[in-house]
Design goal:
The chain is 24% helix and 38% strand. The chain starts with 10 loop residues before the first strand and ends with a helix. It has four helices and ten strands. A hairpin with a 3-residue loop joins strand 7 and strand 8. It has a single domain (17-158), classed as 2-Layer Sandwich (Alpha-D-Glucose-1,6-Bisphosphate, Chain A, domain 4). By secondary structure, the chain is α+β, with helices and mostly antiparallel strands. The strands form three sheets. It has a five-stranded antiparallel β-sheet. Strands 2-3-4 form a three-stranded antiparallel β-sheet.
């Protein structure tokens, strides 16, 4: 597994041990039909997902508000270490093309999955370009939202 240094001035981290096997956590993160079942914290939902699981591939989702408003997000996969690490960014589109992030801020997500007994040590890191973007993401409810989504991921993984 590749280690990424965390910068507390710029990065947000959610780390927990969950009681599902690492391969199921990986499957939930990398299979679009599974990801749509857990990716947005309820009462939000994910209406669509497209993943091209390779460096330069797309990581696109559409989140839907409880009122039905849709929020598309397009990103680029930077790194895939099968079963353990997924890195993607909203600052680039497919093919590593720079893109403008509409209505928000670009960030890079590092998802690390490690065996921990019969479960998984799960770490999600959101890396930001500056402290104001980190603060905005934190105020949007990063810890609560990504934590709720992780709970939903665990429920989906246990159903597999």
């Amino acid at each position: 597994m590749t280690a990424y240094p965390v910068n507390p001035e710029l990065d947000l981290v959610l780390q927990r041990t969950v009681d599902v096997a690492p391969e199921l956590v990986w499957k939930a993160w990398t299979t679009p039909e599974l990801l749509v079942r857990w990716f947005a914290p309820k009462p939000w939902s994910t209406s669509s997902c497209e993943i091209d699981l390779r460096p330069g591939g797309r990581f696109d989702t559409v989140m839907r508000s409880p009122e039905g408003e849709e929020f598309p997000s397009s990103g680029c996969i930077l790194l895939v270490e099968q079963g353990s690490t997924l890195v993607f960014t909203s600052g680039l589109g497919p093919g590593f093309r720079p893109q403008v992030t509409e209505g928000g801020f670009p960030f890079t997500a590092v998802i690390s999955i490690e065996p921990d007994g019969t479960g998984t040590r799960y770490t999600a890191t959101a890396m930001h370009a500056d402290a104001s973007a980190k603060k905005q993401h934190e105020e949007m409810g990063f810890v609560e939202g990504w934590g709720a989504a992780l709970d939903q991921l665990v429920d989906v993984a246990k159903s597999l």
